[in-house]
Design the sequence.
């Protein structure tokens, strides 16, 4: 992947800077926070240096001290904004009300109370092939690195939670079969559908809520102190996957997309029915038993997953309705 | 609708661990075979597999999350 196109003054300077050899001092002015898409893309680029990097960027930039303060600033802005929204949400009130209640029960309540619109339902009922392809292109930003942000959490938890987390990660990475790696199943689906399967290919068209979904996942994964949020997000993601995946597989077949693409979602119906149980009971509940102070962060992470998906869905549905 | 207690047996001599989830599937860990409606045995191919107990999955013997729809409608046979 090459660096994406800049979307504003911040990414213009960042992209220009990264194309030069790494330096310890660069003048990257702070954002004023008024151009959300510019900020989100800048953070996405900075995070991407920790995944697979860019062909046109020297790998030594990854830990360049000159980038760290910019990353810190953008991450703090995102985290503070999400936490403020969470504290105003219904979800946080029910989480706090349930003080000592079993964290699995509270997570279930959060998930059941989620009333965000469903992209899968729309595509099954009245979606078009072009809309389905647009959704796949948007999803490719994350699905081509599916499970990678959560892998960063593994060294930061211990014992039963670590074993259970690895059980799911192992399945995500094909359980020893290179042809079952979930991110590659998605790539095969894209290629069969005539779309690009190249990692990061569609970032230039990634919509703001998609960039923010990705940034939140990377933020939670990269910062050890946010391991509770990372695993709460992970559990909510797994627990809201089986049924929509089934609907989406049907929708893609109805719209004439190739079987390889629908098969990716078939796989998630079955896999995530198991992952959901493990993520809730063996990862989150055990983590909270081991480290009770992380309970609120687990709930915050789960809320962030549901909320950012709801925003993605509303954004795309509005966009399609306006077209 | 009655709760389905899935028939599960170990494949080979590996250890098999099963645990029911409240309101949901039976979680099966270890190499196992699960009996389908027609009596045939299906191999699990995952480190951990969810086996349907509510009887409503479209992917039986595997769970596909449909038990949650039953719970929402108040007709889930599993506690
Ligand atoms: S137990 Fe999950 S679908 Fe039957």
Sequence:
């Amino acid at each position: 992947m090459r660096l994406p196109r800049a979307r504003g003054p911040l990414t213009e300077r960042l992209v220009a800077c990264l194309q030069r050899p790494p330096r310890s001092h660069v003048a990257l002015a702070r954002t004023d926070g008024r151009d959300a898409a510019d900020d989100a893309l800048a953070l996405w680029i900075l995070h991407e240096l920790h995944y697979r990097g860019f062909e046109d960027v020297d790998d030594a930039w990854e830990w360049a001290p000159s980038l760290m303060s910019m990353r810190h600033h953008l991450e703090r802005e995102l985290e503070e904004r999400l936490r403020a929204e969470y504290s105003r949400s219904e979800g946080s009130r029910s989480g706090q009300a349930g003080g000592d209640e079993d964290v699995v029960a509270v997570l279930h309540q959060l998930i059941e109370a989620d009333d965000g619109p469903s992209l899968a339902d729309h595509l099954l009922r009245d979606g078009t092939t072009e809309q389905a392809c647009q959704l796949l292109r948007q999803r490719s930003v994350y699905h081509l690195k599916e499970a990678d942000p959560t892998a960063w959490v593994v060294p930061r938890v211990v014992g039963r939670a670590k074993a259970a987390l690895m059980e799911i990660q192992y399945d995500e990475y094909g359980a020893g079969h290179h042809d079952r790696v979930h991110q590659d199943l998605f790539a095969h689906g894209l290629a069969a559908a005539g779309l690009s399967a190249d990692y990061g290919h569609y970032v230039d068209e990634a919509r703001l809520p998609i960039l923010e979904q990705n940034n939140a996942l990377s933020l939670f994964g990269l910062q050890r102190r946010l391991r509770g949020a990372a695993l709460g997000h992970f559990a909510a993601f797994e627990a809201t996957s089986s049924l929509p995946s089934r609907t989406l597989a049907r929708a893609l077949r109805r719209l004439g997309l190739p079987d390889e693409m629908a098969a990716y979602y078939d796989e998630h119906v079955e896999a995530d029915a198991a992952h959901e149980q493990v993520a809730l009971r063996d990862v989150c509940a055990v983590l909270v038993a081991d480290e009770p102070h992380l309970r609120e962060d687990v709930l915050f992470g789960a809320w962030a997953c549901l909320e950012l998906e709801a925003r993605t869905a509303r954004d795309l549905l509005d966009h399609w309705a306006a077209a | 609708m009655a709760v389905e207690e899935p028939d599960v047996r170990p494949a080979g001599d590996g250890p098999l661990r099963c645990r029911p989830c409240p309101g949901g599937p039976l979680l099966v860990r270890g190499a196992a075979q699960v009996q389908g409606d027609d009596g045939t045995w299906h191999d699990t191919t995952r480190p951990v597999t969810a086996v349907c107990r509510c009887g409503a999955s479209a992917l039986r013997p595997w769970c596909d999350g449909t038990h949650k729809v039953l719970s929402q409608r108040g007709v889930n046979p599993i506690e």
